[in-house]
Amino acid sequence: MSLYTDYLAEIETRKEQGLNPKPIDDGALTAELIEQIKDTGNEHREASLNFFIYNTLPGTTSAAGVKAAFLKEIILGQAEVAEITPEFAFELLSHMKGGPSVDVLIDLALGDDAAIAASAAGVLKTQVFLYDADMARLKEALDDGSAVAKEILESYAKAEFFTDLPEVDEEIKVITYIAGIGDISTDLLSPGNQAHSRADRELHGKCMISPEAQAEIEAMKAAHPDKRVMLIAEKGTMGVGSSRMSGVNNVALWTGKQASPYVPFVNYAPVVAGTNGISPIFLTTVGVTGGIGIDLKNWVKKTDADGNVVEDENGDAVLEEAYSVATGTVLTINTKDKKLYDETGTKELVDISSSFTPQKVEFMKAGGSYAVVFGKKLQTFACEALGLPLESAFAPSKEINVEGQGLTAVEKIFNRNALGVKTDKPLHAGSDVRVKVNIVGSQDTTGLMTMQELEAMAATVVSPSVDGAYQSGCHTASVWDLKAQANTPRLMKFMNDFGVVTGRDPKGVYHPMTDVIHKVLNDITVDDRAVIVGGDSHTRMSKGVAFGADSGTVALALATGEASMPIPESVKVTFKGQMADHMDFRDVVHATQAQMLDQHGDNVFQGRVIEVHIGTLLADQAFTFTDWTAEMKAKASVCISNDETLIGSLELAKSRIQIMIDKGMEHENGTLARLLDLADKRIAEIKSGEVPALTPDADAKYFAEVVVDLDQIVEPMIADPDVNNDDVSKRYTHDTIRPISFYKAEKKVDLGFVGSCMVHKGDIKIVAQMLRNLEAAKGKVEFKAPLVVTAPTYNIIDELKEEGDWEILQKYSGFEFDDAAPKTTARTEYENILYLERPGCNLCMGNQEKAAKGDTVLATSTRLFQGRVVADLPEKKGESLLGSTPVVVLSAILGRTPTLEEYKTAVEGIDLTKFAPPLVKPIDTKSVHF
């Protein structure tokens, strides 16, 4: 069987699924196509020609390399294909986005044939994905007196690759489609349980919303060919919970424009909107695709005659409709006026100027943000090579300085890492900044897409300016099924070859690690002024400032070592009072959200950085707070730490990096060793007083301040999805925080889950301590509901074994993971026992393991969205309540939520995570967990 016949067999299988042939990324298969194209009598010639022209992936895929080489042969007259003239070959090269295609174009442009060189130069002038090696070739040719090289560089110096593009349409007619009421999680657009298919864009597109919705959208497009479909979150925010490039890709696939006729299923320019706008990390992804994100403000708070907000019986503000966006409504976006109008374009509905900043308009014009990032670099290089002053073709970055105003913590971090700043004054919130990225993380369900993005932008090696990069295997750790077996080794090999430390060694030298990526990134971040970018919304480190990002932004950070964004506003969170002995720090996290809403009415965290003054907790424990800020809808968070605590966190990080080295995970480029050196340097700076721990200036300006009163936290707090709320928009929001007494010990719990990135070593020790206490009191522990326990990392399990805690967990477990024989099928039924699962995300992801449909789950995890951890039954909605480890364990043992007294008895004498507000002299909080 040849690769081609295998491909034909795959095509038949895909036909049964209603799918087109899968785009080709394999160079060997492409070579077979070429041989069949050359054979004019071959029965597969016509099909092979179509596959070659329209169905091979561009960039640095092996298929692109073979395709570019053959097109070069055609242009040079070394091969002849009637259907592909030299002119058409140049056109195909122009759509291949860098890598081998640019290499070929430079070869031809610098060749001896003047006519070919002129044509190649004409195509090169339109390209932006050039890397250092490409630029070096042009510079060398320029220095050698090449007129063609000079012509190309002069074009780059004027940025004609950008200026010659058509401007964004002044008027864009849209027809609305309401995707859901209330906050729309990206899980609706790209379900976690379909993560395995994200790199297969057509297949993954089938999972967006529902087949019925897809049919409705297609019908709207057919009926309104002159309009764009605008996907809307009515009475909510679009794209909460995750950046999900796959979600934006799906929206673009169904509602956007095709990027190239020669690249299948890659669309751009989607239009999305929400009553409360677009989630910050999702909005970044919209920019990657040159799309439009709109804050509709179509529901407003109702006020009485005196201007007071009218509230309902629950104390919530009553909303009234300012204008309708019901499905099928035709609206007009005016990109010049930056306003949204009715169908006629005369009645103004809302100002949308924030959607059309100069930078966002450039993304739209260029077809996405990558082209702008690379374009700026290319224009700068060309001007330097020619000795010309740079007259940027791009909108100037906004540089805001407020005289006499101090800096918040995130403003200090951005100023420290800013690149290309023209002013010597410190920059404040709202400034547009290119920043150096220190740490980059890629996880496995988006990693294949990051791999595709790197190939598409022709990147081959991690930027030398990146301090550390890690590829995890945690999101698909639960089940080593056929999908994982096919995808994970391929991903790990690519990333390792690219220069990234990987959780699984592609050569099989070290034991496969499935450690939760956020925990690893928290450990390898060794600077409190670092900028971190990761392919997951929970990239929220307790050192530095971390941004969850789409797979494309992660790829860009890996390739260039940079990210571009405005400096965000900050909300300052401080604490007062004393934490009760029976409370867990998770309750402080939930209470922060509840007290913020009580103090401000609206979610002041949304889209901003939470600067949390929680500096007496080590990095692992503090991460419980910073991690949850994704659920608070914050853009990011910064943890303000005391000197002593920061040193302790860095020493902890060093020990864990050393463990990674000892396990053989060091990359040949020496990443981990360099991180140890950076950690030592940072510790020395703190100890000497040269550069103390990061703190904001006393006169910094905040959007808002929240003071959390620890004295008010007297019982465990639960984040409740409120699945039966009459107001659909208030379900699944993470904002409904309830005390345990609300449930009156009557809430049945069908399954408990202790795991996810929200837990640390101390949580697993709490499970062990509770089992010992209950065993001592009752002789034996019996579970009335299953309890799934998943440690975040292997290091934690190793330490628990050394400290004697793993033994009690094993005693009560009916299942313990075995890496030598991992599960190959997902569990569908649970017994009332303890399950010790493999380190990783497990139930929190919902893409492999899930609770039984209709169950009530009480979990330590982060997600309570519909269908994530548990799906619905027709007669009963599944619900995922979120709480602290002791509450989850006790509820699984009781089969219901406990009373406050039952809870206090169960945790008596247990060393829960302690916290007190930072004092002038830091308290000693190094608990027995560390």
Sum this structure up briefly.
The chain has 930 residues and is of the alpha/beta class.
Describe the protein in words:
By secondary structure, this protein is an alpha/beta fold. The protein has 4 domains: 3-163, Alpha Horseshoe (Serine Threonine Protein Phosphatase 5, Tetratricopeptide repeat), CATH 1.25.40.310; 171-356, Aconitase, domain 4; 404-565, Aconitase, domain 3, CATH 3.30.499; 717-907, Aconitase, domain 3, CATH 3.30.499.10. It is built from 31 helices and 33 strands. The strands form 9 sheets. A 7-stranded mixed sheet has the order 8-7-3-1-11-12-13, covered by helices on one side. A 6-stranded parallel sheet has the order 30-31-29-28-32-33. A hairpin with a 6-residue loop joins β12 and β13 (348-351). α2 (27-38) runs parallel beside α4. The longest helix has 20 residues, at 643-662. The radius of gyration is 28 Å and the shape is globular. The relative contact order is 0.08. This is Aconitate hydratase 2. GO terms for molecular function: 2-methylisocitrate dehydratase activity; 4 iron, 4 sulfur cluster binding; aconitate hydratase activity; metal ion binding.
Map the helices and strands.
Elements: H1 3-16, H2 27-38, H3 45-54, H4 62-75, H5 86-94, H6 100-109, H7 114-124, H8 132-143, H9 147-157, H10 160-163, E1 171-181, E2 184-185, H11 186-189, H12 201-205, H13 211-223, E3 228-234, E4 238-240, H14 245-255, E5 257-260, E6 263-268, E7 271-274, H15 280-288, E8 292-295, E9 299-301, E10 319-321, E11 330-334, E12 339-341, E13 348-351, H16 358-366, H17 369-386, H18 409-417, E14 418-419, E15 432-436, E16 439-442, H19 444-456, E17 468-471, H20 482-498, E18 501-502, H21 517-524, E19 531-534, E20 545-548, H22 551-560, E21 562-566, E22 570-576, H23 585-600, E23 609-615, H24 619-628, E24 636-641, H25 643-662, H26 671-688, E25 704-709, E26 717-719, E27 737-739, E28 751-754, H27 761-778, E29 787-790, H28 794-803, H29 806-812, E30 813-816, E31 834-837, E32 856-859, E33 879-882, H30 885-894, H31 900-907
Parallel strand pairs: 1-3, 2-4, 3-7, 7-8, 16-17, 16-19, 17-18, 19-20, 22-23, 22-25, 23-24, 28-29, 28-32, 29-31, 30-31, 32-33
Antiparallel strand pairs: 1-11, 5-6, 9-10, 11-12, 12-13, 14-15, 15-21, 26-27
Helix pairs in contact: 2-3, 2-4, 4-5, 4-6, 5-7, 6-7, 7-9, 8-9, 9-17, 16-17, 19-20, 19-22, 23-24, 25-26, 27-30
